[in-house]
Design brief:
Blueprint (H helix, E strand, L loop, with lengths): L2 E2 L12 E4 L6 E2 L10 E6 L6 E2 L22 E2 L12 E5 L5 E2 L10 E8 L17 E7 L4 E2 L6 E2 L12 E4 L6 E2 L10 E6 L6 E3 L9 E8 L3 E3 L16 E7 L2 E3 L13 E4 L3 E4 L8 E4 L6 E2 L10 E5 L3 H6 L8 E6 L2 E4 L3 E5 L3 E3 L2 E4 L7 E5 L5 E3 L4 E4 L3 E9 L2 E13 L3 E2 L3 E4 L4 E4 L1 E2 L8 E5 L5 E8 L2 E8 L3 E9 L7 E7 L15 H12 L5 H7 L9 H12 L2
Parallel strand pairs: 1-3, 2-4, 3-5, 5-6, 6-8, 7-9, 12-14, 13-15, 14-16, 15-17, 16-18, 17-19, 19-21, 20-22, 21-23, 22-24, 23-25, 25-26, 28-35, 37-44
Antiparallel strand pairs: 9-10, 10-11, 27-30, 29-33, 31-34, 32-33, 34-35, 36-39, 38-42, 40-43, 41-42, 43-44
Helix pairs in contact: 2-4
């Protein structure tokens, strides 16, 4: 027997004792043992098994001890071990596994630690189990006692940790994550402490943190996040049941829509408005304390605040501005006591993909310099390390943030404009009239659909794009004596162009002896001039091939290059 078929022993609840699968079995089909709750003891999966189907051991709650997945397994289907609450200890999933279905280990409440390591780039983060996020070249560790998301993770899929109520401690979402799916952490009531969503996150799905009642203190979320909701569901479910969160910090750069972010405005006791927030829309907020670090009062709407009895703390240099700004002026208890600031060496920068840029941050007071933490709004475009060194990855735009770790509402940002650059194998060249030269462009084919080639002076040199062996090249032909610039650009204008300076030499250049051709005899003629064996002014003038006013070995090399057409 090499295969245990689909539904083979489904709901055979009368089985007791342990289950031993023979070494001949290579695949366990869908729902093969689902509902076999009578099994007790260990589950032994032999090294011959390569595939475990969806729901294969669903609700086999009687299994106890550790669960060992052999190195032979490459696929674990959705809900494969869902409800196997009797498994205890650690679960190590080997590198051989490249595909783990949604909810594969859902409600395996006895597992203390789950370790997943895979280098397979095709691993689908949208179809992961309740403890697996995405392909990770680093090790992803999560479980009841340990929870770690590596920096390689860019997307937390829908339902990724749904119902994992045993998680304890803080939830740290790395700056690499750009998307948090529907119900990703729904029911994870054991998380404690503050919740910080990094500036890199641009999408948060419905119910992402529904029922996370253990979070206490502050919630920090960027204004870059958009909120995605299925038809017919209340957007408030994003943080519904997060009753412990009473302080909200809004960060990022630009306008903030607090009403559409799924927060229950009645639970917000302290509102912190970040340094670069420019507008706060209708929210009907009524916190007891508002701390606005923006030096220019953000634009408010009529219903941004439902009352104005809160303490309003503002930057000391902006007191007059808040006293006169629409709606802010309605606060009766204004305190101008916010003095902490972060400043960057640059507020805007432009460079080329592949380059690096060092940003420097200064703080007020200076003693806060050691608290600066760095983040990026789009890690695909640019990343930043703990020293402020920015690495540019691809064409696009993002912001690099420097924030105070003790208060993330205090920050500054630099807008990064990253361009791609077409490269050429030559940046300068010399050719003769009627001579053809090829330029080979280098570029990222995902960013360049087609290229154009133009010349600054058609009387000197011409250029055109040709395709040779399926590759784009630029053909340049010399016309007449002079210099022209050949420009190679993207037809979509989505990358920076590259140039090559082409010099077309005089047709007589290098013909020292005047016989109408450039050959070894001209080399000998120049050598004779250098050795003093010939000294006529006409011959000496023709021997200065490089035009530097002297006859030397450089002129010999120049003639040799002309002969070789280098």
């Amino acid at each position: 027997m090499t295969c245990i078929g689909e539904w083979a022993f489904s709901n055979c609840s009368g089985f007791t004792g342990s289950l031993n699968i023979p070494n001949s079995v290579t695949s366990i089909g869908k729902s093969a043992f689902s509902g076999c709750s009578g099994f007790t003891g260990s589950l032994n999966i032999p090294n011959s098994v390569t595939s475990i189907g969806g729901l294969a051991f669903e609700d086999c709650s009687g299994f106890t001890g550790s669960l060992n997945i052999p190195n032979s397994v490459t696929y674990i289907g959705g809900n494969a071990f869902y409800g196997c609450s009797g498994f205890t200890g650690s679960l190590n999933i080997p590198n051989s596994v490249t595909d783990i279905g949604h909810g594969a280990f859902g409600n395996c409440t006895g597992l203390e630690t789950l370790k997943v390591a895979t280098d397979n780039p095709k691993y689908d983060s949208r179809d992961n189990c309740n403890a697996v996020i995405e392909t990770a070249t680093n090790t992803l560790v999560c479980g009841i006692k340990t929870f770690f998301i590596p920096n390689s993770v860019t997307e937390i899929g829908y339902g990724a940790f749904d119902g994992c109520s045993g998680f304890t401690g803080s939830l740290n979402i790395p700056n690499s994550v750009t998307s948090i799916g529907f119900w990703a952490f729904s029911g994870c009531s054991g998380f404690t402490g503050s919740l910080t969503i990094p500036n890199s996150v641009t999408s948060i799905g419905i119910g992402a943190f529904d029922g996370c009642s253990g979070f206490t203190g502050s919630l920090t979320i960027p204004n870059s996040a958009t909120w995605t909701y299925p038809v017919g569901l209340d957007f408030g479910d994003c943080f519904d049941g997060c009753s412990g969160l009473n302080s909200v910090t809004i960060t990022g750069n630009g306008a903030w829509n607090t009403w559409s972010n799924g927060l229950n405005s009645s639970q917000i006791q302290t509102l912190k408005v970040g340094s670069e927030i420019t507008a706060v829309s209708n929210s009907r907020l009524n916190p007891g304390v508002v701390r606005s670090y923006a030096e220019v009062p953000p634009t408010c709407a009529e219903n941004t605040f439902s009352a104005y009895g809160a303490e309003l703390h503002v930057p000391s240099a902006s007191t007059v501005a808040y006293f006169t700004a629409p709606y802010w002026q309605n606060f009766t208890n204004i305190k101008n006591d916010l003095t902490e600031k972060v400043k960057l060496s640059q507020n805007e920068a432009e460079s080329i993909a592949g380059n690096t840029l060092q940003l420097k941050a200064t703080t007020i007071p200076a003693s806060k310099a050691g608290e600066v933490v760095w983040s990026t709004s789009n890690p695909a475009v640019a990343t930043v390390d703990s020293t402020g060194l920015v690495t540019l990855h691809k064409k696009g735009e993002c912001r690099i943030f420097a924030s105070l770790e003790s208060d993330l509402a205090v920050y500054a940002s630099c807008l990064m404009n990253v361009n791609s650059l077409i490269g050429l194998d030559k940046t300068e060249a010399t050719i003769a009239p009627n001579e053809i030269m090829m330029l080979t462009p280098t570029f990222d084919p995902t960013e360049v659909n087609d290229i154009t080639a133009t010349t600054s002076d058609a009387a000197v040199a011409l250029a055109r794009v040709v395709t040779i062996d399926g590759k784009k090249q630029v053909q340049v032909v010399g016309v007449n004596y002079g210099t022209a610039t050949i420009t190679v650009a993207s037809i979509d204008d989505n990358v920076l162009p590259a140039t090559c300076t082409v010099t077309v030499r005089d047709a007589a250049a290098g013909d020292v002896n005047g016989d109408g051709k450039v050959d070894v005899e001209d080399v000998n003629a120049v050598i004779n001039i250098i050795l003093g064996l010939a000294a006529s002014d006409e011959l000496r003038a023709k021997s200065d091939v490089t035009g530097d006013g002297k006859v030397d070995v450089e002129d010999v090399n120049a003639i040799i290059n002309l002969i070789l057409k280098v």
